[in-house]
Amino acid sequence: MRIAIRVKPGSSRARVGGTYGDRLIVAVHARAVDGGATEEALAAIADALGARRRHVSLVSGVTSRDKLVEVDPEPDGCEERLRALRGD
Fold first, then answer.
1. Are strands 23-27 and 2-8 parallel, antiparallel or unpaired?
2. In terms of CATH, what superfamily is 2-86?
3. H or E segment to which residue 37 belongs
């Protein structure tokens, strides 16, 4: 499953939820320096969807706030969790 996300670095705490256009918002504490925010965002997505971190990978958007991530294999209940995080 591929998920379009919008990373918000420098947040007071990490959280996943809400939308920015068609993208899932992932707020992270780390600053956008040396890939820290990206790594924290991938870990937050894995945790929110009930996946292992190693099953979540970055497809595109290394230096952008807008990223495309892939979750493979997809954990049980992933679609429902994703809908709930988006507020659908």
1. parallel
2. YggU-like (3.30.1200.10)
3. helix 36-49
Apex 33 CA angle, 49 and 12, nearest 5? 55
**CA-based nearest residue to 70, from 61, 58, 82:** 58
pTM attached to this predicted model: 0.93
Summarize pLDDT for 19-78 with one digit per residue, the tens: 999 999 999 999 989 999 999 999 999 999 999 999 999 999 999 999 999 999 999 999
> Is residue 26 classed as helix, strand or coil in its secondary structure?
strand
In 3D space, the residue among 31, 5, 32, 28 whose CA is nearest the CA of residue 15 turns out to be: 28
